Amino acid sequence: MMLEESRVVENIEESLQLFNAQILHKLGFPLSEKRTLDCIIKKDNDIVFMKISKKACTKHFVFKELKKLTEFLKINAIVIADRINDREVEEGVLHIRDRIGIVQPKTVKDFVKGDKVYIYEFKGMYYVKIDGKKLRELRIRKGYGLHELANAVGVSVKALQKYEEGAIDMSIEKAYRFIEIFNNEFEQVLKEVDIFRDRIVENIDKRREVMNEIRGNLEKIVLVDKLVKQGVEAEFFEYIPSDVILSIGKKKVFISIIDSSMDDTTALSKSYENKHVSQVLNGVAVNIVKDGVPGSIIREVEGYGIVYRYNDIINNIKNFRKEIEGEKTL
């Protein structure tokens, strides 16, 4: 991480503490700018992944991996950035890409100080959240019938009913039309956007699409493919300490693969980080060692999770599945 981004991280951390958001873990692996996330934070009872970058490039494989991670674990993420692709991140706006929210550093600092965010952007359109009950009360108090108000603002009666039912959010263009009629009183109808929680999630299965990119090494791809064929939900990752994550019911298993090309420091750092990520996410840490890994390293990583031999798993995947499902205590 570059020095400038490190300073942003420090400022954001201070802001989060003021907001009573707990930093559960700061990731230190991998040691490169290609790290998928920087922090795991907790706000109230919600876990949120946080990434800080100068630019959020939605086509970049690191952003795609963050998206895959949030989808697989069903945990929201927030990216603090100055730009999205070739456009600036707008101040006071939450930009949404599935479970990923993108905001300016200043927006976060202002938000934790008490400033409210009312606008979010999704697929180039801008929206506000509204309190349908308050909108209906305002309409009635001002003496408007459904048809009359719908005609005045240029929406269908059905759309107005959906606004009042709280079934849909309102485009910023439509909100301005309501403001023209109700002036400042319309502000009481607007609801605050929560930059940590409010997301739009598209239900699209992207696992095979990502698998086809074959970015990962062959060993983890083979492992995931065999587990999937056994009916286990599994995904592989490149830029977090966990090479593979499994989901079996409510249980999550975080797997770090240690190979013979790693020196002691890298192997220990990876297994240590994998252990801590699994802990904060209430999962189980597993280290899979490949042939050629020295016994000294194997003994060290045993302190950071259960150890399996890669070939033992591949040759007896059914037994491994039984163990991770709990028939044999991990």
From TrEMBL:
<dbReference type="GO" id="GO:0003677">
    <property type="term" value="F:DNA binding"/>
</dbReference>
<dbReference type="Pfam" id="PF26553">
    <property type="entry name" value="PDDEXK_19"/>
</dbReference>
<keyword id="KW-0238">DNA-binding</keyword>
<dbReference type="InterPro" id="IPR059051">
    <property type="entry name" value="MTH_967_PDDEXK"/>
</dbReference>
<keyword id="KW-0805">Transcription regulation</keyword>
<feature type="domain" description="HTH cro/C1-type">
    <location>
        <begin position="135"/>
        <end position="189"/>
    </location>
</feature>
<dbReference type="InterPro" id="IPR020886">
    <property type="entry name" value="MTH_967-like"/>
</dbReference>
<dbReference type="InterPro" id="IPR010982">
    <property type="entry name" value="Lambda_DNA-bd_dom_sf"/>
</dbReference>
<dbReference type="Pfam" id="PF01381">
    <property type="entry name" value="HTH_3"/>
</dbReference>
<keyword id="KW-0804">Transcription</keyword>
<dbReference type="InterPro" id="IPR001387">
    <property type="entry name" value="Cro/C1-type_HTH"/>
</dbReference>
<dbReference type="GO" id="GO:0003700">
    <property type="term" value="F:DNA-binding transcription factor activity"/>
</dbReference>
<protein>
    <recommendedName>
        <fullName>Putative HTH-type transcriptional regulatory protein ENU31_00105</fullName>
    </recommendedName>
</protein>
